[in-house]
Structure prediction request, 107 residues.
Amino acid sequence: MEKGLLQEMDISNNEKNTISDQRKQHRNEFPFLAVEYTLNSASNPESCIGFVININDSGLCLKTNKQLKVGQNIIIKNFLFTTSKKAVVRWIQQSNNIYYKIGLEFI
Prediction:
């Protein structure tokens, strides 16, 4: 990955503090682990790439350039999980003109 892209995707401390912490569990920082996810649509499953910012047993924060909707279901595919994980979008924050931070809860 180019250095410029990594800098563009970096999350500032101010940005981290803009969302109130309503987590049920502490999340472990896991910056820039690339994951593949699929939009949960039987008729047109679209495959996308995102980057895990942090994770715990109940969910994760994903940074992606794909605009999702609150309540939307996705399927996460990655070596962290033995099988694919289903998740629902709980919140969205646009972090700049290109990327979105997505709060996901595993279902």
Remarks:
- The beta strands are 28-39, 47-55, 59-64, 73-77, 85-94, 100-106.
- The longest helix spans residues 3-9.
- The mean pLDDT is 75.
